[in-house]
Amino acid sequence: MNSKLSRLSRTLVFVAGIILIAVLFVPIWQISLQAPQYPEGLLLEIHANGLKGNVEIVNGLNHYIGMRPLRNEDFTEFRILPICIVFFTLLMIIAASLNRRRWLYTAFGLFVAFGIIAMVDFWKWEYDYGHHLNPDAPIVVPGMAYQPPLIGFKQLLNFGAWSVPGTGGWIFIGSGLLLATALFLEIRSSRKRKASHTVLTMGVLILIAGTSTGCSGKPTPIITGRDECSFCRMTISDKRFGAELVTRKGKPYKFDDLHCLEQFVKTQPAVADKAGFYVTSYSVDHSLVNAEQAFYLRSDVINAPMGGHVAGFASKEGLDSLQQTLGGTIIGWKEVMAE
Q1: Which of 10, 119, 311, 312 has its Cα between 20 and 30 A from that of 60?
Q2: 113 Cβ partners below 8 Å, 6+ apart?
Q3: d(Cα 47, Cα 125) in Å, to the nearest integer?
Q4: What does the domain layout of the chain look like in residue ranges?
Q5: Per-residue pLDDT tens over the stretch 20-59
Q6: In Å, what is the CA distance from 12 to each residue of 93, 177, 306?
């Protein structure tokens, strides 16, 4: 327990503490709201010392549903959080300076406990504001709560709410990964330099992967009868013709057919830039497949929900089989987007 740290471990612990200083100056978490009346979206940024972004606009909207206004002075966390960040910065620097494993174990344990407590507190904060509403508000929907997601996406009436770590949040995660890597190195405590460098490389790769990718780029399943087309705003009803766009940040936009997807891309090119495109396979299980790798059949016999005449297929065999019945022409993804 009292043995010294390796040079690599000391460096990782020291860097883990130093990078936390940046958390005092950047947003730790952010909640973005998207709705038709706000095409550019609204953003709430949670910093160590308060809320920033479109706070007043959000408070104005929250008034109509009976939610209390968001005021920095109502949150004790904004007075405590900067102190905690400075504490952990100093603790990690001290652990690296004293060069003892027990200090590393102490820093790692306290840091993990702090992260768990912080997320529980954040969830309780969201629950309190989302559930304790004024019964005399202008808009009252019986049984409706407006608690944003802890992390990820949630639909709240006509607003889509995204909750994800900000730059500071990813720095917190990166600091924790550096500590975890140092801890792993010490537990294994191999004398062989080659083994130590291999483990360090793994830790760095994990850190890079964790801090560079905020969201998954995978599509989410389209639920007919519930999901709404992001272009025409009609409920998606035919699972054979669905399509989906996933932005670089991982936000999904769903469509009832390829025509709506094409029009959306034309009207909102900034959103579609470098996005992933997916199309529902017309036959078999109607799963979402990569649109650029799919196969397409244009036929006047095919009638998509918005008047289109194109269907997508996961395999060439499925397309050939239906073409024998419906006729039509085989086209590519570029031709689909030029319809």
Answers
A1: 119
A2: none
A3: 15
A4: 7-212, 243-337
A5: 999 999 999 999 998 888 878 899 999 999 999 999 999 9
A6: 10, 9, 56
